[in-house]
Design brief:
This protein is of the alpha/beta class and 378 residues long. Helix content is 34%, strand content 26%. The protein folds into 2 domains: 130 residues, NAD(P)-binding Rossmann-like Domain (Rossmann fold, 3-Layer(aba) Sandwich); 244 residues, Dihydrodipicolinate Reductase, domain 2. Strands 16-15-14-13-7-12-11-8-17 form a 9-stranded mixed beta sheet. Strands 3-2-1-4-5-6 form a 6-stranded parallel beta sheet, with helices on both faces. A two-stranded antiparallel ribbon has the order 9-10. It is globular, with a radius of gyration of 21 Å. It starts with a strand and ends with a strand.
Length: 378
């Protein structure tokens, strides 16, 4: 008999769908002691949250997150709302002793992140942040290859995350669908939204970053605000590029923009080591490119590994070798790892504390972007 874990979801957007899908599927594919139960979902719009509950199979709805967090029949609170609400909800949930899963980025700033880390650690509650790309089999394989020392000494880490959906100056900011453009709700633009993914993967695979130098730009300076109806200044970074020094001595270059016409979600990274290199591309997420200098000269070249074999991370749980999985599976894997960690009393990463490292890098990037100076990650 599996142990039931009652989930209280806050939010009903894109991420709430991705997480709900993962809770529903995880026990069909992974043999785990725990089983999530979709107990309640909360959002301010009662009519919409009821439709969401019906679609995904939540047993009940709430319209006030404070009420949801206080409910005695819930074990886990899943925070899937704009970034400006993460801290208050996490602090309130920690006070009730509930486990907390928080959508990325952890917080609006590392100052808020630090408060959240303290609160959950004092409360001693299980916690995790949804940096889902780590759990794509090809990305997990990249981490494994680096850990095994196959690349040797790492010289370079290079990542980009490119989109093009905010180029139109007529696009408003703020409100349900466009809160990512509103600095009051998002905290930052591409730095917290997209580079945070790149930074999380980079730290996970290549270790901590010590200093950065960045440039940021806001191409469209004013947009109509959906909440006030007025044209207001845009406070987010539309684009950001930064150089980084890793503690292991390697150099990092990172770039993100929502103004790369033609690119919808092009997240790629490349790692160059003394002996081998790795490349990964979200548009082809089940493949990992690998070049090994130790290969016999005439055969040496980039190989494209179709990461669908039973020996590859997570893949033995899915179909048969050669059949690929997709984006949504990264969330299923994240829930599986969280539940497995609970059973083994071994927290799955990234915990709030791990995600706070990314938050610190984001703060340093934004600071450097505004001062034009190198910034230490503190
Ligand atoms: C923004 O468009 C976004 O949805 C991010 O918020 C997600 O974190 C990223 O995975 C895809 O792009």
């Amino acid at each position: 008999m599996k142990k039931k874990l009652n989930v209280g979801m806050i939010g009903y957007g894109f991420m709430a769908r991705a997480h709900s899908n993962a809770y529903r599927k995880v026990n069909n594919f992974f043999d785990l002691q725990y089983q999530p139960v979709l107990k309640a979902v909360c959002a301010r719009d009662e009519a919409k949250v009821k439709i969401f509950a019906e679609t995904w199979g939540y047993e009940s709805v709430e319209t006030d997150w404070r009420k949801l967090v206080e409910r005695k029949d819930l074990d886990v609170i899943d925070i899937c709302v704009p970034n400006n609400l993460h801290r208050d909800i996490a602090l309130a949930a920690a006070r009730t002793g509930k486990m907390i899963l928080c959508e990325k980025p952890l917080a609006m700033s590392s100052q808020e992140g630090a408060q959240m880390v303290t609160a959950i650690e004092q409360a001693g509650v299980a916690n995790m942040v949804w940096y889902n790309y780590r759990r794509l089999p090809a990305v997990t394989l990249a981490k494994k290859l680096v850990e095994e020392g196959r690349l040797g000494r790492i010289f370079h880490y290079r990542a980009v995350f490119l989109q093009d959906w905010t180029i139109s100056a007529d696009l408003p900011q703020g409100g349900t669908a466009l809160w990512r453009l509103d600095v009051a709700a998002a905290g930052s633009g591409v730095t917290g939204d997209l580079l945070a993914h790149c930074i999380d993967t980079a730290i996970w695979i290549n270790g901590d970053i010590s200093r950065v130098t960045a440039m940021t730009e806001t191409f469209v300076k004013e947009r109509k605000h959906n909440l006030t109806g007025k044209v207001e200044p845009v406070g987010i970074d539309d684009a950001c590029a930064f150089l980084a020094r890793f503690k292991n001595g390697s150099l990092g270059t990172f770039e993100s923009t929502r103004y790369a016409r033609g690119h919808k979600a092009l997240y790629t990274f490349e790692i160059n080591g003394e002996k081998a290199s790795i490349q990964w591309d979200l548009h082809d997420l089940h493949r990992l490119a690998y070049f090994d200098h130790r290969d016999e000269g005439v055969l040496r070249g980039w190989r494209s590994i179709h990461v669908t074999d039973g020996e590859h991370p997570y893949m033995s749980q899915w179909w048969v070798p050669g059949l690929q999985i997709g984006y949504e599976h990264s969330f299923v894997h994240q829930v599986a790892d969280f539940l497995d960690g609970l059973a083994k009393n071994r927290p799955a990463s990234p915990t709030f504390r791990d995600a706070q490292e990314t938050q610190k890098v984001c703060d340093a990037v934004l600071k450097s972007g505004s001062t034009g100076q190198w910034a230490e990650v503190v």
